[in-house]
Amino acid sequence: MNRHYLFLAALSLGVSVNANAQETDVMVVQANKIGAEIQPTMYGHFLEDINFAADGGLYAELVKNRSFEFPQNLMGWRTFGNVALEDDGPFERNPHYVRLSPAGHGAKCTGIENEGFFGIGVKAGEGYRFSVWARGENQKIRVELVNTASMGESQVMTSDVMEINSREWRKYEMVVTPKETFAKAHLRIYLVSDGSVDLEHVSLFPVDTWKGRKNGLRKDLAQALADTKPGVFRFPGGCIVEGTDLATRYNWKNSVGPVENRPLNENRWNYTFQHRLYPDYFQSYGMGFFELFQLAEDMGAEPLPVVNCGLACQYQNNSEDAHVKVADLGSYVQDALDLIEFANGDTTTEWGRLRAEMGHAAPFNLKFIAVGNEQWGEEYPARLKVFVEAIRKAYPDIKIIGSSGPNSEGKDFEYLWPEMRKLKVDLVDEHFYRPEDWFLASGNRYDNYDRKGPKVFAGEYACHARGKKWNHFHASLLEAAFLTGVERNADVVHMATYAPLFAHVEGWQWRPDLIWYDNLRSVRSCSWHVQSLYGHNRGTNVVPLTMDKKAVSGQPGQNGLFASAVWDEPSKTYIVKVVNTSDKARKIRLEFKGLKKSAALADGKCLVFHSDNPDADNTLDNPSLIVPQEKALDVDGHVVETEVGPATFVVYKVPTAKR
Looking at 144, 200, 302, 374, which residue is catalytic? Predict the structure, then answer.
């Protein structure tokens, strides 16, 4: 291979082959000083139902407004023939249903048609489970998946007849299998008998859901979460915990029990961004707290539920009357206590029994609970205090997470941190959606935090580039740089979760986001790959790493370099993460000091994450455009001589030699 091709190959890995002489940056790893434990919860995920993240996203239900409970009851449905809306159905909290009756002129032309979420994505040859609660004597309905854009002889992709024969409400199921793949299908249901039939909770799920569950999750999206090896899973928000007002806050008790009787909730994001308006954005609660606890368990992550503290969204509610008075917090506090019982209680308790009835007799082993989201001012600690006292009394082992408000610094932040210390919360949730210069300047953010105070949960963060508020490689590179400081300070920072998590390409209101999708495909952004690189290379303990006897945190004179080092006890491996945020390649010498002369390091490997185009990202059409590349790593004794290309994140894995 000639020099030209070697040069191109090196560039594709983000490794410079510049032959010009340059100084070497010497990084010293104190390999014999195994430091602070890195918490298993250090890297994880935060789910909020924004950008159609739940209904229309992770929750695999394909029918929109399946129980006819939207304020406009037939939103998402087209009706034809003789269709009546009724409100005395079998489910107390979802009373509406439709009655299909003959149209009165012989032709079988009474029915309903659902548009799904931006259409219904179906794949050829795969099964889709149709279910409905129905009543009618000796009646039949025809269930079809249709391609309304088809120019062929028929729009019908699959069709089957379901017999309804019960005077009482009963659940009916069948599986339909389309013959073609189509992202914008509709579900069409005809009355094909001469009498009347009542239909409620009309549902369509892929048979192949995550873990094969009937009320399940979209498989590719759930797998994308699990594939980062998350240690913590925060849910269900975010601002939806607060609600536009208290009436629309997320109420976890409405999200458990039989799915057919979980009431609809208005999603606070349906009208919030009027420049990207989605008035049909509601929460079915189908993917409720039981399903979210179950997902955390499936991923091996600690569940971290968030409960409302009696405050509605303070951005939208300035009046004290919009919030619950401190003296009236009793039911809100009880909700928090009942949630812990639901997660951990014995099956003889009220809420533990419900968990068992839903299919999970064993406790979920909840360890954490967050009270409030981004609240600020005196209102928040006054209310949080009531929760802290009650939870400590009833469940002293549960760790409580408070908030430092919506900003990473400033008046509210400076006020709330001392208040959190006074209340002796276990962790403080910090949020920062900030531009490039903030991330570049914040590599040492946690170096001087109080080691005796509450620990830190970096609960929502993302690099929002100025003028480029979309996913791109450079933003993810700066997130990787920032995380070296998080990792270096693992004695202070116990959790970190990027936000937001999901976005539908036709339904987003906020970006950047970690995972994007349409009705059939999904793509893992560059930021996702950064999360995955950290999640899979977390290590068990911090190891000191310095350059010129200083932490490598991108400060002036450090050539745009950020770095951290950890020891991984199970694999007996040192893992060094180096981020070069500059536009020049840097020669690096890693010296592993403190090891006995007889102690040997083996050749390892490195994972290189780089893009020649800083504005590029993976797309649905090219999901693997920018992914980490693995290379062999030569180790000479206790030294690694290497080079990090410009705008490159590298993970070096150096195992100890087996003897």
Answer: 374
Torsion of CA 85, 86, 89, 92, to 10 degrees: 100
Residue 162 has pLDDT above 70, yes or no: yes
328 secondary structure, DSSP code = G
Global pTM reads 0.94
State how far the Cα of 304 lies from the Cα of 370, in Å rounded to an integer.
7
Q: State how far the Cα of 411 lies from the Cα of 24, in Å rounded to an integer.
A: 42
Q: Which residue in the block uniquely carries the two structure tokens 């259409």?
A: 119
Would residue 374 show up in a list of annotated catalytic residues for this protein?
Answer: yes
Distance CA 641, CA 592 (A): 12
The closest alpha carbon to 191, from 129, 112, 131, belongs to: 112
Helix or strand run (H / E) with residue 379: helix 379-394
Percent of the chain with pLDDT over 70: 96
Nearest-angstrom CA–CA distance, 397 and 639: 45
Q: CA 551 → CA 108, 444, 457, 546, 591, distances in Å?
A: 76, 8, 22, 5, 15
Closest to 65 in 3D by CA, of 117, 143, 120, 100: 117
Distance separating alpha carbons of residues 376 and 415, to the nearest angstrom:
9
What backbone torsions phi and psi does residue 363 show, to the nearest 5 degrees? -65, 155
Write down the residue that tokens 């149709």 correspond to.
Answer: 130
What is the structure's pLDDT at 106? Answer: 60
CB atoms within 10 A of CB 30: 17
* Over residues 512-537, mean pLDDT: 98
Query: Is 550 exposed, middle or buried (CB count within 10 Å of its CB: 0-12, 13-18, 19+)?
Result: exposed
